[in-house]
Specification:
alpha/beta, 5-stranded parallel beta sheet, 5-stranded mixed beta sheet, binds S-adenosylmethionine
Length: 255
């Protein structure tokens, strides 16, 4: 049996991959993060063991304990799904779990998921690249400790051009904005901050880099910085109804 490191996507259950849904439905044990939408867990067998190792403020589960749990479960020969928000290898510490399983000789595989770094902006009407506006995007953590000893060179990042997508950046947003401006980005650079992207409670805050420090943001939020954040490609209210009516009339032979 294999330990499957599975991406749960950004939250909307419809954004699970078919492989993820199949593996969850077949699993003996599902070990999940707090970001996984609870409705995703209803795909598991009624007799499957569900283990919540979500790291929340005040109730942290040390990564070493999660690694040891996966090795323990894997060694028992059960079908284990390790369900992680977004993509397992995008700031999800999935790489560390893979290293622990490799070291213990436990078979494992990785099922990529749709990362919030692209899904949350898209859900808010922001394309991370756009012809003539941005030809690249850089995904970066705003959490100081995530990169270990390597701090992000925000001033240098300001010189790269293209879109900057910051995950886990709420707490440090004022410092991040100040360093990007010090690095040469204009204070009026558009910013879109998307909380709980793709979930019913999705909320977008539009501001500028100069105002980012004062914007009332809460985690989990994906912060998009750059000209694309000034775009809003969300359908106008009622457009879906028009589209459905038009397709219906065309299907019925109308014009
Ligand atoms: C530990 S990182 C994990 C990222 C995940 N592996 C991924 O690929 O999306 C958690 C951060 O991802 C971002 N995030 C995750 N889900 C989100 C969502 N539904 N909407 C907006 N941001 C989200 C937030 O910045 C959050 O603090």
């Amino acid at each position: 049996m294999t330990v499957h490191l599975v991406g749960a996507g950004p939250g909307d259950v419809d954004l699970l991959t078919m492989k993820a849904a199949r593996l969850i439905a077949a699993a003996d044990v599902v070990v999940h993060d707090y970001l996984a939408d609870p409705s995703i867990l209803t795909l598991a067998r009624p007799d499957a063991e569900i283990i919540d190792v979500g790291k929340r403020p005040g109730r942290p589960t040390p990564q070493a304990m999660i690694n040891a749990l996966l090795v323990h479960l894997g060694a028992q020969g059960t079908a284990v799904v390790r369900l992680k928000g977004g993509d397992p290898y995008v700031f999800g510490r999935g790489g560390e779990e893979a290293e622990a399983l490799l070291a213990a000789g436990i078979p494992f595989d990785v099922v990529p998921g749709i990362s919030s770094s692209i899904a949350a902006p898209a859900a808010a009407g922001v394309p991370v690249t756009h012809r003539g506006v941005s030809a690249s995007f850089t995904v970066v953590t705003g959490h100081r400790e995530s990169g270990g000893s390597t701090d992000i060179e925000w001033e240098a990042l300001a010189q790269v051009g293209g879109t900057i997508v910051v995950l886990m950046g709420v707490a440090e947003r004022a410092a991040i904005a100040a360093r990007l401006i010090a690095g040469g980005l204009a204070a009026d650079t558009p910013v879109a901050a998307v909380r709980w992207g793709t979930r019913p409670e999705q909320h977008t805050t539009r501001t500028t880099l100069g105002q980012l420090g004062d914007a009332p943001l809460e985690a989990p939020t994906t912060i998009v910085i750059g000209a694309v954040a000034g775009l809003d490609l969300t359908p106008a209210p009622g457009a879906g109804e028009f589209h459905r009516a038009a397709s219906h009339s065309l299907a019925a032979g109308g014009q």
